[in-house]
Amino acid sequence: MSFKKKLLFITGTRADFGKLKPLLSYVENSDKFELFVIVTGMHMLSLYGSTYREVIKQNYKNIYLVNNQFENEPMGSILGNTINILTRFFKEIEPDMVFVHGDRVEALAGALAACFERKLVCHIEGGELSGTIDDSIRHAISKFAHIHLVANDEAKNRLIKMGEDKNNIFIIGSPDIDVMNSDTLPSLKDAKEYYDINFSDYAISLFHPVTTEFEHMQEYASEYFKALKDSGKNFIMIYPNNDLGSKFILAQLQTLQGYKNIKIFPSIRFEYFLTLLKNAEFIVGNSSAGVREAPFYGINAINVGTRQNNRSSSKFVYNCCYDSNEILKAILNLKLNSMLEKEINFGSGDSLDKFIDFINNNKIWQTNLQKVFVE
Q1: What Gene3D superfamilies does this protein's entry cite (predicted)?
Q2: Reduced to 3 states, what is the DSSP secondary structure of residue 285?
Q3: pLDDT in tens, 354-370
């Protein structure tokens, strides 16, 4: 009698769930694997829209909703909570492989807990560079992960430099490109109606806290939103993540409630966000969406501050400091292009096919739990 291998995915944000959805759907419908999804982090916070409901709507057979934090709880405390909780789930589920994505604290907790429970860890989209503490978290996860699914050659080469075994690194591209490239995204009309957006032209703002600059975040948030307000343009603004310093950004957003040219949302469903991004004049802030997703659509981005300092450069990305005058100048001087050539640095939309080849490769299940540093 054969048994399905148990694959456990951890999702902490609407963004990483949206990116992982193609992979989750394949596993859920496979006759060789059994899907388990732990939903935690920002998903569970009402302030950010209680986005766990989006996961529930997928009707996966095995979904676990896990509250791992209170609002404004310190990141170190959240890490400890999550390790403790996940360890119990690993003992109950006994997964054959644990999948973590990106650079959030839930992913770090998942990698740590899984290693101590002697479970294979697969890290999706490691080997990349951004800035601040996100880099430290991402690289730490990579050192605990046994297997890596990376977006491109650059990421693979960085992991090799970190002492990772090249035979355990697989280039599949970024799974969100599959979603971005699909013909199933909602229409712009549907997206606008769903979120009651009546702008004909608009830009998107996504501004997150930088934990290593906490002492200055109140000032930086004030400068940032002053520039956007003074520009007079229409903006779709989305709440920041819940890292240290988010309270300053949320406070500034509250002062903009009621402006006719500004719509503010705790969160936007991933597919709807992609449609809105694809049709935006530009995106501004310090989200990875500005340096990853926007160039794929040929959309210009104004990247503010240091959060994405080490991301790969792009002709679509204009970098500026936190000064309101510099941000305003960037907005007003930005040349809007409707026919820009796309940039494909994170895959071409075939990540699912490559994931299927990977997960059905019997050799990966022989991966040694004892990691070694490769000189």
Answers
A1: Glycogen Phosphorylase B
A2: strand
A3: 999 999 999 999 999 99
